[in-house]
Design a protein that fits this description.
The complex is a heterodimer of chains A (210) and B (196). By secondary structure, chain A is mainly alpha-helical. Helices cover 67% and strands 2% of the residues of chain A. In chain A, helix 1 runs parallel beside helix 7, helix 3 runs antiparallel to helix 7 and helix 7 crosses helix 8. Helix content of chain B is 69%, strand content 0%. Chain B contains eight helices and no strands. Classes of the chains: A mainly alpha (210), B mainly alpha (196). Chains A and B meet through helix 2, helix 4 and helix 8 of A and helix 2, helix 4, helix 6 and helix 8 of B.
């Protein structure tokens, strides 16, 4: 497999291989921690930090880790950085830590991070791996913000805690409840599928591929 | 979850099975919920494997937590838990491979992926933060596993019907599953207040 260019390793994760909307990985936090924009931002930062640091370390160690035990080593590396994040978030803001519940610790088992370690950083150099982690992290953040934005605006009538509509707005409470998470993500996936199909249809007559 | 050490066992079961169902209300274990819910048979067997892993890892996590607290090394909790879960999954995998190769094939990649099923780590993490006693831990793990299996089997049943339905091409795949999950989650909201 040819190694992707520096630009590609950064850009791919943001849009073309967006972890949530295209690869459909890491759904649990994308559904659970997006009932407000603030939580979505905090979760994105935590995931991005773990992605970048674990990608970097996996890439540094890639030549010394025996193939048979690589997954276990990756998980240990990820768990270490998640523990760091866990304590850091607790120290920075207790309300946010409470709002995230067990989901900070559960970054360990977030498929995005392990899949990047296995599919990318165990094969590429450190700089590319860091760029890949950043790109994937930004892609994940975009997805979380899309989710959080829709859910907070419709479900509580506010954005980042600032009320958007007048007092007469009746919040669509279902969107901050669990079922709203499923509906919102389903709707986004639907929109993206439509978008891709439209793009493919428009491309065909011109006879070249994107 | 209101939680606390004085939760009765019946409350724990009802709470994790229906009111705060792991999949539909707490978003734990979404990946296998979407991935292995094609057929009722596979789904229920996957559920049994998850219940078993949950029970064993919950019991082990309880013991490990005592040791870690005694050694003043709580920061190792996450790493220790994930190691326990990974080895339990390995055990189950070897067991199933030996006893039922067909099931082993049907579960495929999703069997080792129980390790990264957030529901399993979620049980270990939640029982620690809620401060449950040993019996409560076991019941909590059992209820969570059953709740996970329930959601998985219901979903598989619906998806088997869905194969015959006329779904718009764009919504095929994950989008329609998420929509159905949303409706299911709403239905489970009807259980709110039960057992409290």
């Amino acid at each position: 497999m040819a190694s992707p260019s520096y630009k590609d390793s950064f850009v791919n994760g943001i849009w073309k291989e967006n972890p949530v909307f295209v690869q459909v990985l890491g759904m649990c936090p994308a559904l659970a921690i997006t009932n407000s924009v603030e939580n979505a931002i905090a979760m994105s930062c935590a995931v991005m930090f773990v992605l970048v640091t674990s990608n970097a370390l996996v890439s540094i160690l890639r030549k010394w880790v025996p193939k048979e035990v690589r997954i276990a080593v990756f998980i240990l590396i990820i768990a270490t950085f998640v523990t760091v994040t866990d304590y850091a978030v607790k120290a920075i803001s207790v309300p946010i830590y409470k709002a995230m519940g067990p989901f900070i610790a559960l970054i360990v088992v977030n498929c995005i991070i392990l899949s990047r370690a296995e599919a990318f950083s165990s094969k590429n150099n450190v700089l590319k791996s860091i760029l890949d982690g950043l790109g994937m992290g930004i892609g994940f953040s975009i997805a979380l913000l899309c989710m959080g934005g829709v859910r907070e605006i419709l479900g509580s009538g506010s954005f980042l805690g600032h009320p958007l509509f007048g007092a007469n707005y009746e919040p669509w409470v279902i969107f901050v409840l669990p079922s709203g998470g499923f509906f919102t993500l389903g709707a986004w996936l639907f929109i993206f599928a439509w978008w891709r199909e439209r793009g493919a249809r428009n491309k065909k007559p011109e006879g070249h591929q994107a | 979850m209101s939680g606390g050490t004085d939760d009765t066992l019946s409350f724990l079961i009802l709470n994790t099975l229906l009111v705060n169902n792991f999949v539909l209300a707490q978003f734990l274990g979404i990946c296998p919920f979407i991935g292995v819910s094609n057929k009722i048979e596979t789904a229920s067997r996957m559920g049994v494997a998850v219940i078993f892993v949950m029970l064993v890892s919950s019991a082990l996590a309880y013991g490990i937590n005592i040791v870690l607290v005694a050694a003043d090394a709580e920061y190792l909790r996450l790493i220790a838990y994930i190691a326990v879960i990974a080895s339990t999954v390995q055990l189950v995998e070897m067991f199933i491979k030996k006893t039922s190769p067909a099931l082993f094939k049907a579960l495929g990649i999703y069997l080792p992926l129980i390790t990264t099923n957030c529901a399993v780590l979620g049980v270990a993490k939640l029982q620690t933060s809620e401060g449950y006693s040993f019996i409560q831990c076991i019941v909590f793990a059992l209820g969570s596993g059953l709740g996970f299996t329930l959601a998985l089997v219901i979903m598989a049943g619906i998806r088997q019907k869905l194969d015959l339905a006329d779904v718009p091409g764009l919504a095929k795949g994950t989008a329609i599953i998420l929509m159905i999950a949303g409706v299911l989650s709403m239905a489970f909201m009807g259980f709110a207040g039960l057992g409290s």
